[in-house]
């Protein structure tokens, strides 16, 4: 996908303007020629229940589901924080870890309580993101990436969202809430997996 070619349209399986901005920022950081749009009439479509046990199943299931209601290539993702010492929790339940209407602060508080007394290797954690592509109910590709770090005892930094303030990234010596948007796009699980999908599309189109 060169800068001179017509941008490839990717339809995001969401109605979230924040997710659209995030994808566009990732595309810009990857120097990708993409026309990213939200799926039309998302709220009127049958809802996909992200109830699977893995990020990959949720991402691909969502992409396949919504690709049946529009023309074009649909992209969907699922992501979360995996803590081996907690048996993989919060995992696919990361966004609902402290309840459906909980805030980021509520989720962080619950996780820090679960981590109380754990030290050293037991504080290892990784962010995982899986991106899936589908078209007209057929899978086109699935990609995954992770970012390895450790959990702090207390939040640090004012940026990011979710569990970013307690996720310490040793490579940069900061939490994900302390790094710049550019640094995060380069090093994060979401940035890395998006570049994998872009590389795939560049070869496939």
Determine the N-to-C terminus distance: 8 Å
**What percent of residues are in strands?**
15-25%
Radius of gyration equals 17 Å
What order do the strands of the largest sheet run in, or round the barrel if closed?
Answer: 2-1-3-4-5-6-7
What is the level-2 CATH architecture name? Alpha-Beta Complex
Structural class: alpha/beta
User: Which overall shape is indicated by the principal axes computed on the Cα atoms?
Assistant: globular
Per CATH, what is the topology? Maf protein
Which CATH class? Answer: Alpha Beta
Number of helices: 5
State the major sheet: 7 strands, mixed
What this model shows, in words?
The structure is a single chain. The chain has 205 residues and is of the alpha/beta class. The protein is built from five helices and seven strands, in the order βαβαβαββββαα. It has one domain (8-204): Maf protein. Helices cover 29% and strands 25% of the residues. Strand 1 (8-12), helix 1 (17-29) and strand 2 (34-38) form a beta-alpha-beta unit. It is globular, with a radius of gyration of 17 Å. The relative contact order is 0.16.
Set down the secondary structure blueprint.
Layout: E1 8-12, H1 17-29, E2 34-38, H2 55-67, E3 73-82, H3 104-114, E4 124-135, E5 138-151, E6 167-169, E7 174-175, H4 181-187, H5 189-204
Parallel strand pairs: 1-2, 1-3
Antiparallel strand pairs: 3-4, 4-5, 5-6, 6-7
Helix pairs in contact: 4-5
């Amino acid at each position: 996908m060169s800068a001179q070619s017509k941008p490839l349209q990717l339809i995001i399986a969401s109605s979230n303007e924040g997710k659209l901005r995030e994808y566009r920022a990732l595309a810009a950081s990857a120097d990708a020629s993409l026309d990213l749009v939200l799926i039309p009439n998302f709220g009127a479509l049958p809802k996909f229940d992200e109830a699977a046990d893995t990020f990959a199943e949720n991402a691909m299931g969502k992409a396949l589901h919504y690709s049946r209601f529009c023309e074009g290539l649909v992209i969907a993702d699922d992501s979360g924080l995996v803590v081996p010492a907690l048996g993989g929790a919060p995992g696919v339940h990361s966004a609902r870890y402290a309840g459906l209407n909980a805030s980021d602060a509520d989720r962080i508080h619950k996780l820090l309580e679960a981590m109380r007394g754990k030290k050293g290797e037991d504080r290892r954690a990784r962010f995982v993101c899986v991106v899936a592509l589908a078209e007209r109910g057929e899978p086109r590709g699935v990609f995954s990436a992770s970012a390895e770090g450790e959990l702090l005892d207390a939040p640090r930094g004012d940026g990011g969202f979710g569990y970013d303030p307690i996720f310490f990234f040793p490579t940069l010596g900061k939490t994900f809430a302390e790094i710049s948007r550019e640094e995060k796009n380069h090093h994060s699980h979401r940035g890395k997996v998006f570049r994998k999908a872009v590389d795939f599309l560049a070869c496939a189109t």
